[in-house]
């Protein structure tokens, strides 16, 4: 009897592991961008939370194969000033925009926000207000720098200009 229990346990474990997909590009590490969930769903969930928490939404369009996308993700996750901005003012949504091998992932979402990938390449940032209205699109090449600290400073400065408080003021007082 114990043999069958062990065998059944091993089979259950094997089937659970087979259901869990490995990284899209294993040499790059774990996936950052969700290949399975549609961007519309991720954004809809972020809008619902943003409305409750009075935050904006920061979309990052990227791909799991993209080194600059991964570096920017690391800055988002590790740089204290950026983490604080994201925690206090934004819902961060990673939108998979992989087009390699004829994959048109989230093409409708890209089109909805003006096809930012076609204009700016990967990654690209889009800021939405709490209701999902597009406020700005930002290419990220100008955020690149030799050190992660410099990248973090540039990202934090960009985010500071698009917090809910800043944009509420800018509606009343246009920016120069």
How would you describe what is shown here?
With 176 residues, the protein is an alpha+beta fold. The protein is built from eight helices and four strands; from the N terminus they run ααβααβααββαα. The protein has one domain (22-172): Glutaredoxin, CATH 3.40.30.10. It has a four-stranded mixed beta sheet with strand order 2-1-3-4. Strand 3 (124-128) and strand 4 form a beta hairpin. The longest helix has 18 residues, at 2-19. It is globular.
Attribute tags:
alpha+beta; Glutaredoxin; four-stranded mixed beta sheet; 4 strands; 50% helix; 14% strand
Q: Report the portion of residues in β strands.
A: 5-15%
Oligomer description: single chain
Gross morphology is: globular
Top-tier CATH class: Alpha Beta
CATH fourth-tier homologous superfamily: Glutaredoxin
């Amino acid at each position: 009897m114990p043999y069958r229990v062990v065998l059944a346990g091993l089979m259950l474990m094997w089937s659970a592991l087979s259901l869990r997909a490995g990284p899209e590009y294993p040499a790059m590490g774990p996936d950052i961008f969700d290949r399975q969930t549609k961007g519309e769903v991720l954004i809809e969930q972020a809008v619902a939370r943003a409305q409750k928490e009075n935050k904006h939404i920061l979309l990052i369009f990227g791909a799991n194969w993209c080194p600059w996308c991964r570096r920017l993700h690391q800055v988002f996750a590790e740089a204290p000033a950026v983490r604080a901005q994201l925690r206090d003012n934004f819902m961060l949504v990673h939108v998979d925009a992989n087009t390699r091998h004829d994959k048109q992932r989230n093409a409708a979402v890209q089109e909805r926000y003006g096809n930012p990938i076609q204009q700016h390449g990967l990654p690209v940032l889009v800021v939405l207000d709490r209701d999902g209205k597009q406020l700005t699109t930002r290419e990220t090449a100008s955020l690149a720098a030799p050190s992660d600290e410099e990248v973090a400073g540039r990202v934090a400065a960009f985010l500071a200009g698009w917090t809910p408080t800043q944009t509420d003021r800018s509606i009343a007082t246009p920016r120069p």
